[in-house]
Every structure is written in structure tokens, then in C-alpha cells.
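hey can u check if this looks right to u? its 549 residues, i copy pasted from the old doc so theres a chance i mangled smth
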Amino acid sequence: MIGRCLLLVVCLLAALAGSPDARAAVANSEGKVVDPVPLLEFRTAGQAGWFWTLSQAEGNAAEGQYGMARQHTRLGFLRRQAFPGSQPLYRLRVADRSAYLLTASASERQSLLDSGRFTEGGVLGHLAAGKQAGTELLYRMSNGAEWRVVPAAKQAEFAGRGYRTDGPLGYVWPAFHRTGAVYFGTFDAKGNQAMMAGTQRVYGRAGDWWGGLRDFAGAGVPRNAWHWPREDFTDREPAIGFYDDAQPETLRKQIIQATGAGLRYFSFYWYWNPADGGAENYIEGLRAFLKASNRTDIDFNVLPCLHPWKDGPVSLALPAEQITKAANLIVDTYLTQPNYLRANDGRPILSVCDARGIGRGTADGMHVEDTRRFTDAVRARAREKLGEEVLITVNGGVPAGTGFEGSDCLGQFDSSRSYQRYADNQRAFFRNFPGTLLRCATSDFDERPRIAISIPDPGPDPELLRQRFRWYPDADLPGFERLLAAVRQDIAESTRPSTVDNFVSLYAWNEWHEGGYVEPNKRDGCAYLDAVRRQLGLTTGAGCVAAPA
């Protein structure tokens, strides 16, 4: 019975994981998340009171072991650690029943403990003592029988139900969208060799990884927009110029752009080349990120793209005999980094963008047994190296037995070819993936600059062009804002697990050849990042800088 546990954190985690080492591992993982996390609310067994926690592990134990009922309320986001201008929030338990009270007053806490009517419940988390960007007051209210935690927006509603305001607890973030962008790190001399060979063949320029984009934009070369001469493609040039992502200075500038806008992470596409025993491929951008002078200003994770096809002569698959080698490399090289992206429950996040190239997988689908070998190998190495569990998600649905624990999504091209329809249908798309979901938003999709380089030119016939190339003719900034508003609303109304429920991954930071980019460009500047900041209410950073010094 939960009422017999004096230190609830210890009691619940003991129920969740019997050994002291397991409990310490959970606390260690959770403590590595420095962004605000959601305050979870539970109705205690027998409806004797209410219970609150920032720990998903503790909440799972409250439900599974002690019969508490999770409430899908939106109380706000707090930090687990103290921060400038913060104050601790204390949790106390009523001594004779399963009911709890929160207070930010050290003197009230001590007085209640001295009365003998309450027992210690520890520091729940930390909230702001005064108003900070994006925060609102959180109150404690009571009706003589129980205490509730009430956001400012709900205060009048609770007053109408007979609750009185005991006082403010402090300032919290009503919502905190942990937003990042997919990073395509192949804009360098070791990038896609087939694309560079195509550029040399079509445009006569050797070693140019920006082929097609320079030409459509007319930036430094004669303009050549092929069958679309009246369209404006000047947005296809980055604001910092056509760069080499193998240079740490490039990543330094991009980190400034991203963090200024409020982004919290980059998700790097990660590839494998099975030749000569197997090794990472297209990795120069990620390596440059790890060398950037400001790399710790933003988190990152890797997205293994284990495709069942080739880029020219280069295979992108992961043979079965190389699974352990690849899994060990991912954990040892990346998950051990201090700024590796973690879920709200503290687990490092590995999002697999394509698993069909693992082992005996084919273009028609992943091989369940070989995929499970990969996810098991990652988890085994993480336990050995970190003493931690890993959250592994996959792009799309989760086939049974593969070891994936949730879904994520990347760039999307709607079969209607209408960006506006895509934006309208995004929430319906999310409903295809129940449970844990890392949501996504695609800024645009347009692969026409690849014409003749990697996609044959079918000639000027409009219908043949539509058959050969994917692009949204109606994509625009208002449509993107409408999409982001729909994603925000989906999060606000969600009843999914809180693990990554406030995460949003943007497609993409710099998928320039497919038209998916929020990275500032020469024509629009920071317009797309400003839209993200505005629609998702991002409050970190001082605002986007299009071209950092």
C-alpha cells in the first residue's frame, strides 16, 4: 500500500526496479535531461488524493504497482535541476492517507513536517521564482478535502468548482516543444559521389556537391531552371553561402542560427558502407559538428538510414555479420557524448530512418529477426557502456518483434501533390501511429534541381515531368505555419506517453536537393525558422541570425 511508503521516490522506484543499481541508473538517466519536462498528475488509489511527479519511471510504478490513475492534464513543464532564478518545489505526503501536497515555501514545508500530519516527499523539481520568457503562474488550490495544482488558465474554472487559491507555486512553461531539425551531412567532398559525377557530366563542374542548386538559383553560374524558367529559385542558396559541411566553422554558424531560433537539437542522417568490413559513410558533417567550438550549445542524435539500395556503386545496407560492429560504433562514438539527445525519461534516442537494409531486409520490408538483432545489439552495448537503456524508434509503423518502442516520421510527400492538403491531413497521419510518437513537420518537398544529375530529364511535357519528379507547386510559408499550428494542437490534445510527446522534428535543416530546409536562405532569410519559433512558442535563444559573423 502506497500510504506506508514515507519516501515515495524511493518506494516507487524500488517497485519499478528491485536493485539499487537499477534505481540509480534510472535517476542518472533522468538527471541528464536539462530541458523542462512535463509535470505528470495521478489520482491516487481510492480517490484519496492526488500525486505529482516529473519522473515517467515513477509514474509508471504509481500506475502499475499502486493503482494510481494517470490524468491527461496539462499542468506545465518544470526542470529537474536548479537554474538561474529558480526555486525548488517540495512534495509532501499526508501521514494517514494517500494524498499529497506541493509547496514552494521552505518555511511552510518545515511547518507542515513539524506538525506531524505530513511526511517528507523530497524535491519534486524546480520552477521559476519570477516571470521568465514563456512562463505562466502555477497555483495550489484546495477545497478543504484535497489539494490541486492548477495552471493560471484554469484558476477561474477551479474557483467555480469550490476551490480556493492557497497561493502561487511559481512560474512554469505551459508548453515546451523540444524542437529540432534533420541534418543532411553530405555537402562535402566525401559526400554523394554519384551526385558529383552527375554534376560534372551535366554542368561540367568537377567536385561540386551543390550541383543543380547553384544552377536553379543562378548563384555564381548562369541560371538554368530547365523546364521551369519563370519560377523563382533564389531560395536554393543558403544564407551563409554554398558551404562545405566538413568544416567545423560551417557547423558553428549553423548552431548559432538554430539555437538563436530556439531549436534544441540536430538529428544527423547516419549511413553505413559494408565495403572492406564495414564503416560509417557520409559522416563528415557529423564529425565537423563534434569539432565545432559551440557544439555543446545544442543536442544531437543520429538517424541510421540503412537502405536496401545504393548511391551509385556505394551500398547503404548493413549486412547481418556487421550488425554488432555498427551497433557498438553508434553507442561508443555518439551515445556517450554529453549532449546526445535524450527523451523526457532520460533515455538516449536512436531514431532509425530506414531498417529495410538490415541483414536480409528488402525494398518491400525489413527482416524482423535481423532488425531485432540490431536493436538488441544497441541496447546491450548501451547497458555495457553507459549502464542505461535506449529509446529506439523507427520511421513509420512498428512491426512486431523488431525491438522498436515507438514511431517517428521524416519528410513527407503527399500523393495529392498538394502541400496544403498535406498540412490539412497531418493530424490524421499521426493517428496512424499509436503510442510513442516523435512528431514531424515537412517544410517543403521539391526534387527538381536533381534533373539530369540523378533523375533523367523526360523533356518539357508537363505530365511526364509530374510523373518523374516530386514537388509541391502550392507550398508556401502560410501553409507551413498552418502545419505547425496543427502539430502544436495535436500535442496539446495528446493522451500519448510523455516520453517524447512534446518533441517536433523538422524536415529538414538542409535537405536542399529535396527542397526540405528551414536553414536560412538568401531569399527568405530566417522566415521559416521565425515561423517555427512563433507557432511552437519557442523561448530559448534570442532570435534567428541569418548570417552569423
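The longest strand covers residues 118-128.
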